Amino acid sequence: MAYVIRWCGLIGLATLVIALTVVHPHVLAANEFLHAFVSHEMLALLIVILTITLASIGNIHLTLSRIVRRFKSHADGELAAAPARQELDSNAWSLFWAFVACVVVLLIKGGFPTDVYIVSLMNGFALIILAFNMAVLHDIYSTVFDLVRQDSTSDEHKPDA
């Protein structure tokens, strides 16, 4: 259900951006904050998020390996951990491709600095990319909290000494 809400939110934001660009492009194009933020500043923010999150995902994979070792059957543990690993990998790639999309947005915005419609649309796309990053981070942290909960209760899978 959370995925549906996130995707509906992103689609709603995209619809709002397109509507504002068509009807009132100056709302997004003439915004001083967006003018200053949708630049190298946004790239800096996204690269910090990407770098820290990739390191965190590495630690989460190590935690998953520790949880898997506690299972009586290593195969059962790997089978149980596979969906979490796939979700984390998917999230990591999503953050990377969002960063690449932001670079493209900034190149397009820089190529047409006087076209109010393109500036408006690119500023809006940058906001969508930022919202997408926040949704991915929320998903990663939800996974972390689930793993912490499982890690504290996984002693039941440990063989008796």
Question: What are the key terms here?
Answer:
mainly alpha; 86% helix; elongated; 6 helices; 161 residues; single chain
Number of helices: 6
Specify the structural class: mainly alpha
User: How many domains in all?
Assistant: 1
Shape: elongated
Report the uncertain regions: none
Question: Can you offer a commentary on this structure?
Answer:
This protein is an all-alpha fold. It has one domain (2-155). It has helices at residues 2-23, 26-29, 32-37, 40-70, 74-111, 116-153. The relative contact order is 0.17.
Record the SSE blueprint.
Blueprint: H1 2-23, H2 26-29, H3 32-37, H4 40-70, H5 74-111, H6 116-153
Transmembrane segments: 41-64, 92-110, 116-137
Keywords: Membrane, Transmembrane, Transmembrane helix
In short:
By secondary structure, the protein is an all-alpha fold. It has one domain (2-155).
